[in-house]
Amino acid sequence: MKKFFRFFRSMKFGMILLSAVMLLSLAGSLIPQQDSAMRYVRLYGSQAAQLMMALGATDIFHTWYFYVLEILLCLNLTLCSILRFPQTRKASGEWLARARAAQGEQTLEARQREKLEGYLAARRFRAEEDGDGKVFHKNAAGFYGSFLTHLSILLVLLFGSLVLMTPDIRDQTVMPGGTLTLEDGTTVTCESFHIQDETGKLDYASVLLARSADGQREKRQEIRVNEPMRFGEFKIYQQTYGTAGRVKITNHANGAEEIMFLTDPCFLSIDGRNGVYFQALYPGFIREEDGNYTLVTSTASSYEDPVYSIQSISGGMSTSVLAFPGEALRIGDISFTFLSPAEYPGLRVKHVSSWLFGGLYFSFALMVAALYLCFFAVPVYVRVGQEGFAVLSPKNQQGLMLELDVLLNEKEKEA
Fold this sequence. Notes:
- By secondary structure, this protein is of the alpha+beta class.
- It folds into 4 domains: 84 residues, no CATH class; 100 residues; 94 residues, no CATH class; 102 residues, no CATH class.
- Helices cover 37% and strands 34% of the residues.
- Strands 3, 8, 9, 10, 17 and 18 form a 6-stranded antiparallel beta sheet that branches. Strands 1-2-19-20 form a 4-stranded antiparallel beta sheet, sandwiched between helices.
- A hairpin with a 5-residue loop joins strand 4 and strand 5.
- Helix 3 packs across helix 4 and helix 5 packs antiparallel against helix 8.
- The longest helix has 23 residues.
- It is elongated.
């Protein structure tokens, strides 16, 4: 049992867990997460998509095995850092005690001792009186470098997991020219959207204008699938796209006009009895030799020859009609003019509390400071007394000893 506990709290086991978490996080970054099954089929093929969904690769950060690895790593880091803190603190005191008990090998004259103490003070060593001598020490915080490194990794893991696991994610659609209002009052306006660039190459891109609730901050950015917009606590992704029909409704009785977007089947009517029932919008058609039309039901790009499938309802009579952009249908005092379709984006809005990012940034800053303490802030103790001086440190300080020897030799030559 003791061997198991020793291995569980060891750095080796921690590195194994950390490597596993990093590999899963990399997979979660490369594989689109929480998307539709059809998209995985299009990207990876039917069999691979089924295997990925069965293993949870399409939602890695919410799988049971990712949670288990996170918990085990947190426990390992806790045991490696927090439980070792008393030992670290004890080691700091032991080195100070050893420095006080150290004896030099070469007797120092008063002028040599004064020169040595002045040199150490200039190097920002702190001095403590110790009987007939002094103990100079520097970088005592370096003892805590390893402890703080473990602690910072634990905090990075903790806050990073919260950022990945706790965001509020909402998928929303917005028509070009339309505006979304987010929960804190932030507005996001879709200024334009296209699925093809000027050369005809597929390029799903939206130009968004985000404005804070108080109107003090705004940001305009073109987003793509892998180029989201970050605004305040929100991250907005180009998630999917769609094509909506458009119809201009004109009331000839009063001259009023309105343009409506058509995405789902709906009944357009003034009196609830007469009007147009929109059934579907098709991306194209094929005209047969006999004059009939075969409708195209799918396309990978823009709707080049769109056609509306509608039902004209008037006086209790229903008639199936195919309408093309530019055509108008009048029922009573109402005209329905079918316009060219509009492509619109599907946006994924991810909201993460700012305090989580603040904690994550603090953790990274703590890690940088801890690594500095580990590699550049090596604790050094120098006892200076009448009997001589002694240098003590957890790491080799041959360079400092040579500097002090040179300093004393120069003094002797002057004498």
